Amino acid sequence: MLKKFIGYYKPQKKLFFADMLCALVVAVCDLFYPMITRSIIQDYVPNKNLRLIIVWASVLLGIYLLKAGLNYFIQYYGHVMGVRIQAHMRKDVFTHLQKLPFAYFDENKTGVIMSRILNDLMEVTELAHHGPEDLFISLIMLLGSFIILCGINVPLTLIVFALLPVGVFLVAKLRTRMNHAFRVTREKTGEVNAELENSISGIRVAKAFTNKEGEIRKFEHRNREFVEARSDAYKVMGQFSASTNFFTDALNFTVLIAAACFLFAGAITVGDFVAYLLYVSMFLNPIRRLLAFVEQFQEGITGFKRFCEIMDQPEERDDPGAVPMGDEEARGDIAFEGVRFSYDNNTQILRDIDLHIGSGKTLALVGPSGGGKTTLCHLLPRFYELDDGSIQIGGRDIRQYTRHSLREHIGIVQQDIFLFTGTIRDNIAYGRLGATDEEIVEAAKRANLHDFILSLDDGYDTYVGERGVRLSGGQKQRISIARVFLKNPPILILDEATSALDNATEHLIQESLAELSQGRTTLVVAHRLSTIKNADEIVVLTPEGIAEQGNHHRLLEQGGIYAELYNSQFAE
Ligand code: ADP
Ligand code: MG
C-alpha cells in the first residue's frame, strides 16, 4: 500500500525533490546561526576582527534572505504538490466510482462515499505534503545539532540530549489527549451540522406539525454538547501549551546551569556556552514536527487505506470476447429465460422468469408493489448480474455485448427521477451529449414540455435547483421523458413513468409515451392499468413469480388478479 501511495509522487517528482532540497537547505541554514554567533563571541570580538564580524553578519543576512525565499517555495509549491496529489487521487477514485456496479451504491450511503472522497483524502494530502518535509527537517535539525554540539563537548551534549525523551514523551502524551478532544469536537460539529440540515430540510413538516419548540430544543441540546466538547478541547490545548512552554523553560534552565558549570570548570568557552543555549532553544520545534509527522502518518495512512478500499472494489467488466451491440441486434426480440435473481443471494426476488417481447412490441408488467417489476427492468441493461438463467436481445445473451453498447441502445424513464444541477437544457441534453438546440426543443415538444418551458422566465436556461426542487413531479418526469426522446434508443423501459402525474397531465404524456414506444421494443411498468390496456402482452408479476400472462381482453376474461385490479381501478 505504501508503494501505491508513493506512486502518486511520481508525476510530482520534480516538485518533490525541489521541496526536499529546500527543506534541507532551510534546516542547514538554521544550524548556522548559533555557530556564527559562537565564532563572533569567542574569536572575532576578542581579536577585534571587525572585518570578519561584518563578513559573517553579511553571510547571516544572506542566509536569512535565502531562507525567506526557500520558505516561500516550500509553502507555495509544497502545497501545490499536495493539492495536485489530492486531485490525482480524487480523479482516480471518481473515475473508479463511475465504473462500480449498482450494488456498490445500494450498500454505501452517498454521505459516507462523499466523506471518503473529501475528508479522508484531505488527511492523505496533509501527509503527502507535510510528511516528508517534517520528517526530513526535524531529523536534520536534531542530528545536525547533536553532531555540532558533540564537536564542542561530548559530556555536556549527552546531558542535554538525555532530556529530550522527556519532552518527546510529554508532547506525545498531550497530543494524544488533544487529538481525542478534537475528534470529539469534530463529531459534535458534524452532529450540529446534521441537526441543522435535517431541521431545515424538514422545516415544512415541522411547521405543519407546529413542532417549533421541539426542533429548537433538539438543536439547543446539540449546540450545548458542542460547546462542552469545545471547552474540553481548549482545556487540553491550554495544558499542552503551558506544559510544552514549561518544558522549554526547564530545558533552558538545565542547560544554563549545566553549561555554566562546564564553563566555570573551563571545559567550554563563553562562545560554546551561548551556542548551547541557542541550539537548545531551537529543539522544541523539531520535536513538535516529528510528533506531528507521526500523527499525520497515522491519519493519512488510515485515510489512504479507506481510499484503497474504494479503489479495490471490483468494477463492472465486460465478459471476455464481448462485442459491441449493433443496431440490427438491438431491434431484435428480447427474451428472458429461466431468470432467477436475488440482491443478497438470500431472498429470491425473481424466480424462473420466462418472458418474450417481439421486436417493436410492448410488454407491460403489472402487479403488487414489491413484486420485482423495477428489479426486472434493471436486469435488462445489466445493472445487476443474474443468479441463473439468461436474457437475450437479438438472439444473443446480453453478457456477450459490451455494457456500454448495451446501455446505449436502451432508454429508461426511471421511477425515481434525478435531475442534475444545471439548466433544463442541460438536463434534457443529458440524453445525448452534443445534441443541437433544435433537437433538444424537438424532444421537449414531443414530451409535451416545450410550452411549459417557454412559460418560464429563463426558458430552456432555467436553472434546476438542488435536485430540481422548483419543479413538480410531473414536470421532472417530462424532462426525463424528453431525455429519452433525445436518446432515441430502439429499446425502451418505462418504469411507472406516469405515476407522478395527475390525470390531465397523464393523458398528455400518455400520447407522448405512445409515440415514444412506436417501433421500439418496450417494457412498461404501470400502476394505472388504463395506460397499458393496449400493450401487446401483459404480465402480472407477484413475489411468487409470473401469475398471469396475456393481452387485456384475455386477462379480463380469465377473471384473475388482473381482472380484479382492473375492476377495482375502474370502479374508482
Ligand atoms: P416493484 O417495482 O415491483 O415495486 P422492486 O423491484 O422495487 O418491486 O422490489 C422488489 C423487492 O426487492 C422488494 O422486496 C424490495 O424490497 C427489494 N429490493 C429492491 N431494490 C433493492 C436493492 N437495491 N437492494 C435490496 N433489495 C431491494
Ligand atoms: Mg417499482
Distance between the termini: 64 Å
Quaternary structure classification = single chain
Number of helices: 20
> What is the helical fraction, as a range of percent?
55-70%
Largest sheet: 6 strands, mixed
Summing up helix and strand content along with how strands pair, one would put the structural category as alpha/beta
Radius of gyration: 36 Å
Cross-sheet strand order for the largest sheet: 6-9-10-3-11-12
Ligands bound here?
adenosine-5'-diphosphate, magnesium ion
Mean pLDDT equals: 88
The count of DSSP E runs of length 2 or more, i.e. the number of strands, is: 12
Note the overall shape: elongated
Beta-strand content bin: 5-15%
Contiguous uncertain segments of 5+ residues = none
Please provide a written account of the structure:
- The chain has 572 residues and is of the alpha/beta class.
- It has 20 helices and twelve strands.
- It has helices at 2-7, 13-44, 50-99, 102-107, 110-152, 154-201, 203-208, 212-264, 270-282, 284-311, 327-330, 373-379, 403-408, 424-429, 437-446, 450-455, 473-487, 503-517, 552-558, 561-571, and strands spanning 334-342, 348-357, 362-366, 388-393, 396-397, 410-413, 422-423, 463-464, 491-495, 521-525, 537-542, 545-550.
- The protein has a six-stranded mixed beta sheet with strand order 6-9-10-3-11-12, sandwiched between helices. Strands 2-1-4-5 form a four-stranded antiparallel beta sheet, with helices on one face.
- Residues 106, 343, 349, 369-375 line the site of adenosine-5'-diphosphate (ADP).
- The chain crosses the membrane at residues 21-41, 53-74, 139-172, 253-279.
- Residues 334-568 form the ABC transporter domain.
- It is a multi-pass membrane protein.
